[in-house]
Amino acid sequence: MPEPFRIIVSGEGGQGVLSIAKIIATAAWTQGKKSTYMPYFTTEKQGGVSIGFAQVSDAAIPFPKFAQADMAVALSQRALLRLVPYLHEQTVVVTNSFLVKDTSVAGGRKVLAVDATTIAREQLKKPRTFNMVIMGAMLRSIPGMSPDGFGKALEKSFGSKYVRDPALKELNEKAFRLGYDLTA
Amino acid sequence: MPDMTTNQNVQIRSAFPKCVRIDSKPHLFCPGCGHPEVLKALGFAIDELGLQAKTAFGIDIGCSLLAWDYFNMDTVETHHGRTIPTMVGFKRANPDAVAIAYVGDGGAYAIGLSHLMNAAVRDEKIFVIVVNNAVYAMTGGQEAPTTLPGMKVSTAPSGADEHYMKAPEMIRNVNPTAFVARGITSVQPALKMLMKDALKFYLDGKGFVFVEVLSQCPLNWKTMDKPQETFDFLEKTLAKAYPVKRY
Amino acid sequence: MAEKKFLMGNEALGRAARAAGAKAFYGYPITPSSEIMHFWAGEFTTEQGKKDGLVFLQAEDEIAAGFMLVGGVLAGLRSFTASAGPGHVLLQDAFSMAEAMRLPVVAYLMQRGGPSTSTVIYSQSEVNLACFGGNGNGFRVVYSPSTIQDLYDYGIKVFNTAWKHRFPTFLLGDGYLAKTMAEVELYTPAERGIAMVEPEAYLLEKNRKRPLAEIVPSPELEVREDGGVQYDCLRNCLNFEEETAAVNAEIMAAYAKAAPEILEWENYGPTDAKTLIVAHGIVAAAAQAAVDQSGGQARLFRPITLQPFPLEELRKAAKGATKIIVAESALNQLARFVKDALYGVTSAPLIEYGRPSMGILPEEIVGLITAK
């Protein structure tokens, strides 16, 4: 296992890209690991490409940013293009295949294509929870991580939204579980 | 008939308020300047309400800075235009203080206008006194937001243009409950009453207190040796454009 | 009780200010520092915050925020602000007054891209501004934290430095640190045996323990008595060159006296390594990782205080180095300090790796170390 394990997530602003990286880092920490999360944010609240950097490790992590990712998650076609410079030979590429049709830029790398939007729409009637499906699908490829602590990490991240919309909590956890089970 | 020999039952009117620092006299202002008139009116009001030891007196850059040793009161000189936010920060941190911001028309209406208006909108519990002499006095008689149409000043040699700033009117517009008034130096008893009423409003914690005082600048008005012209300009021209009243 | 939490840098700073017993925050929102303000707004509205007498005010701009901060300090509260980039530029108006009158204002400055509005992300290009902004001579204290834990530790320390020595004191962080989430150990100063220096008002102080005459330069202060009450009058507008000379001389003397106690630096890596890297802030964290990866070839000198700058310590560190690399996310800001310190002291070549407003990764520094 490369030390630390590095995850880069990219997508359109507003897709919840940053939440994915943040929740994974938070959950890893609650599982007793060292972790960092750093957003690469722009002035665009919606519509720009945003990138999140997460690292998970058993040892202290010296620096929050990195040049090469062990896992690259693309939630849109142009987001995938943004990630190409971060790929090394062993990088696992994860995509939302509903929005990322062409993965040729991934070269011969392992691609985990998840039609998260369709799953979220058909099974949960909430296409917006697709990012939770993606997060669940990522989990088994992150060394040493389990689904433990995700409920708590989600609550930390969605706190105020959960208060406004209590149904969202169950929905998010279901979506996460659907994604996790896909890779069983 | 009062006994004139023992002073009993006779109130001898002092020329200066008690809170004025007599050993700094003569003051630093030009002969004939209106600032000392404003400060005296304020000083008498502070005396009457017993506020000398409770007051934090903030003064701006410009002629108002010459007030830094006028009183025996805790005083701080700030930067040009920044006395209002300084006293806002002070008052928020020390709610028991009588926080006064003493500013000229350039400091309050040009460089510091945003601070003035926002303090009014937030209804900050401070007392702002603006001395309006329609000109930048200390820096050499440049045009101020209050310079009247046609007034020839160093940066408007062919006469200032037609618009000018009416601050009490603007402040009343954004804050319907504040104490807002305009006074004039040439009617001292009324000015002292105005200061006292303003301070009473302040002490009752009713909100933002704003007093503009029309004041003379014989030096920049070029009326140094013509006191009648000074007061004609103050009372007839300036007071016509800027009504002396409570808003 | 000390506890570990997984926090964003900005929240660590908000908690540091709270742990330090800060009472007042005046500020204006700007990315990437806004969450510090959000945190304080939250604290301000809690029952505990009300009980503690917290002050919070969102100003109309950073000029106002800076002077409100001055007002809070004059009233004797541990007061602070947070900003970045163009907001940091505007704050310098008030910081200049604070420098002149020895007012212990505190600011958390989280550098963003520059010049101008630039990116909201990151840089190290506010070093000159933090150290020398304003029309003075740089009599302020600037700490450069490297990690999220540093944000918490120095976020507390700045208040003590400010109130003990009475100089404007800044924590100069950056957008990466501001926005990174990582583990932070939280503690109260008392748990670490840190005594917090009690603030004292400049105006309307009822129980003055330290006379203002010991602090404020003499031409700027008049203390008067009337009816048994002492009145303090402060000014910053002076009439004569001799007065400004006296003000500067008095501030300089106080600064020179305080500096040895304030100076902080760190040497990292094998002392016999021939390559010396000089870096500060988060770039020093990258350099530390690079030192670990370079197999004994390199060591790091990290100034923790940029102002005052640990000049003598850098000179010592430069001894024996045959190559000196200055890495910074700016152009010639840290490097200028280094050249100033090393002039005439070493003949080792100086390599300036300036990447204005760009992150510097450990791998890049390893590349510089191994380059022939």
Write structural notes for this entry.
The complex is a heterotrimer of chains A (184), B (247) and C (372). Chain A is α/β, with parallel strands linked by helices and 184 residues long. Chain A has one domain (5-182): 3-Layer(aba) Sandwich (Pyruvate-ferredoxin Oxidoreductase, domain 3). Helices cover 39% and strands 24% of the residues of chain A. Chain A has six helices and six strands, in the order βαβββαββαααα. Chain A has helices at residues 17-30, 77-83, 116-124, 130-139, 150-164, 167-182; strands spanning 5-12, 34-40, 49-57, 69-74, 87-96, 111-114. A six-stranded mixed sheet of chain A has the order 2-3-1-4-5-6, with helices on both faces. In chain A, α3 packs across α4 (130-139), α3 crosses α6 (167-182) and α5 (150-164) runs antiparallel to α6 (167-182). Chain A is globular, with a radius of gyration of 15 Å. Chain A starts with a strand and ends with a helix. With 247 residues, chain B is an alpha/beta fold. Chain B has a single domain, classed as Thiamin diphosphate (ThDP)-binding fold, Pyr/PP domains (Rossmann fold, 3-Layer(aba) Sandwich). Chain B has eight helices and six strands, in the order αββαβααβαβαβαα. Chain B has helices at residues 35-49, 83-93, 105-111, 113-121, 167-174, 188-203, 218-221, 227-241, and strands spanning 55-59, 74-77, 98-104, 127-132, 179-184, 209-214. In chain B, α1 (35-49) packs across α6 (188-203) and α3 (105-111) packs across α4 (113-121). Chain C folds into two domains: 3-192, 3-Layer(aba) Sandwich (Rossmann fold); 265-370, 3-Layer(aba) Sandwich (Rossmann fold), CATH 3.40.50. Chain C has 13 helices and 16 strands. Chain C has helices at 9-19, 34-45, 47-51, 62-74, 85-101, 127-132, 148-165, 175-179, 241-262, 281-293, 311-318, 334-342, 362-370; strands at 3-8, 24-27, 55-58, 79-83, 106-111, 141-143, 169-174, 181-186, 221-226, 229-234, 265-268, 275-278, 298-303, 305-307, 323-328, 350-354. In chain C, α1 (9-19) crosses α2 (34-45), α4 (62-74) runs parallel beside α5 and α11 packs across α12. The longest helix of chain C has 22 residues, at 241-262. Chain C starts with a strand and ends with a helix. The chains are: A alpha/beta (184), B alpha/beta (247), C alpha/beta (372). Chains in contact: A-C, B-C. Chains A and C meet through α1 and β2 of A and β8 and α10 of C. β2 of chain B pairs parallel with β10 (229-234) of chain C.
